[in-house]
Amino acid sequence: MTVVKAENVVKDYGLNNQTVHALRGVSLEFVRGEFAAIAGPSGSGKTTFLHLAGCLDTLTGGNMFVSGMDTGKMNRRQLAILRRQNIGFIFQAYNLIPVLSVEENISFPLVLLGVDKKEIRERTARVLAEVGLDGMAKRRPKEMSGGQQQRVAIARALVKKPALILADEPTANLDSAIGREILELMLALNKSAGTTFIFSTHDSMVMDYARRLIRIRDGQIESDEVK
Questions:
Q1: With 0-12 CB in 10 A as exposed, 13-18 as middle and 19+ as buried, what is 118?
Q2: pLDDT tens digits, residue range 147-157?
Q3: Which one, of 152, 148, 209, 113, lies nearest residue 198 by Cα?
């Protein structure tokens, strides 16, 4: 099953009266259960690709299909629904809500989806256990280490059982030992749930863990290797 399909995707930005060509005709396809990394230097276009696949930005040209939906033909509300229902995000800076507890941060996507309260409690407790955070449900983000906060972010991404998780430099703020723990956790969850993971990274450790490594430079694909 194809989860993301990009056909000759182009993305341009205006910057200081100049046009920046972030993506220059990128074509990629990702199927269910992949654990893939898009690697490249800063400004190569890897994060731009994730933003387009995550329906956080719009195309300049080409076609992008997410869970079979043509995002270029969807309005802002439709894109928000697609994003909310089908995609989980893990960010470099965790992006947790500081005034909410761990369990409230994790359950927030389910509240937005209108899930029944009993099911929210059950799914939140289950995913807390899966990411090794039993007993921490009532803590606030500021009371946790960086690695623990990233586990909360992973749990929040997983709790709605998305077809796709997009992880933008998820190990960048972690030391190598904690980064390895986080990658092992995500790989285990990928295998158990069959969720597609796509990373953007310049971390060699993430590249080593990826089962598919795509290298991008100057908005174009340099190589695409399945390990």
A1: exposed
A2: 899 899 999 99
A3: 209
Whether the Cβ atoms of residue 86 and residue 67 lie closer than 8 Å to each other: yes
Residue that has been written with the tokens 């990274």 in this structure: 201
- The pTM score is 0.91
Among the listed residues 172, 216, 168, 215, the one whose alpha carbon sits nearest the alpha carbon of residue 21: 216
What's the maximum distance between 2 C-alpha atoms anywhere in the chain?
A: 53
pLDDT at residue 173 tops 90:
no
In the block, tokens 């269910």 appear at: 32
Task: Find the helix or strand (DSSP H, E) in which 80 lies.
Answer: helix 76-86
Sheet holding 212-217, edge to edge: 87-91, 164-168, 196-201, 35-39, 212-217, 220-226
Both tokens of 145, joined, read 């280490």
The rounded distance, in Å, linking the Cα atoms of 111 and 109 is 5
What local confidence, expressed as pLDDT, does residue 99 receive? Answer: 94
Cβ-contact 169, 113 below 8 angstroms: no
Q: Is the dihedral of CA 80, 81, 85, 86 positive or negative?
A: negative
| β partners of residue 87 | 164
Gap between the Cα atoms of 148 and 209, Å rounded: 20
Q: How far apart are CA 19 and CA 59, in angstroms?
A: 14
